[in-house]
């Protein structure tokens, strides 16, 4: 008996004007007018997170149709990577061009969820542009990689408001992708892909030939 083909669903793709119109195209800084570029993007069922060249994170709530803004204190620098996570609390990790990494614990209206915006900083280990971020499913672990090959592990205790970070791996080329699951971190660099076993702190390369 021939199998019945699933129906084809046509979808229309169009610019998200309701989102783009809520982000300024220019800002005024003193006597200068600075163009705002969109530099990073991540989405999930609840939020659309957009990083910008002025160091501002624009976070659009899809349920409430509201845009909120978050930034780093001090130097205004480009955001290079953003990573959302929905677990017990909603979290967003942000990396910048100079190697700063921050985690925002978002406010929720649901009972028993976080009622005050909190920020955690990964202090001073990265010195160059952040190129990848990866969460553990429960939000207690964050891995960050930069364009000099450093990978940092940050342990977050959201209840105590603590973030402890340490360098766990250093590769000779830029990190281009990170993904974490079941105590194994998948790492892709410009030269190779490897599995880093976080408990044993051992490395297993995927394939034998370096990338060209």
Fold blueprint:
Blueprint: H1 17-20, E1 26-29, E2 32-35, E3 38-43, E4 47-52, E5 56-61, E6 66-71, E7 79-86, E8 90-96, E9 101-105, E10 118-122, E11 130-135, E12 141-146, E13 150-157, E14 162-170, E15 175-181, E16 184-189, E17 193-197, E18 202-206
Antiparallel strand pairs: 1-2, 3-4, 4-5, 5-6, 7-8, 8-9, 9-10, 11-12, 12-13, 13-14, 15-16, 16-17, 17-18
Task: Please tag this protein with its features.
4-stranded antiparallel sheet; single chain; mainly beta; 51% strand; 212 residues; 1 helix; Methylamine Dehydrogenase, Chain H; WD40_repeat_dom_sf; TCPR2 protein
Descriptive overview:
Pfam families: WD40. This protein is mainly β. The chain has one domain: Methylamine Dehydrogenase, Chain H (7 Propeller). Strands 3-4-5-6 form a four-stranded antiparallel β-sheet, with no helix packed on it. The chain has a four-stranded antiparallel β-sheet with strand order 7-8-9-10, with no helix packed on it. The chain has a four-stranded antiparallel β-sheet with strand order 11-12-13-14, with no helix packed on it. The chain is globular. The model has no long low-confidence stretch (mean pLDDT 89).
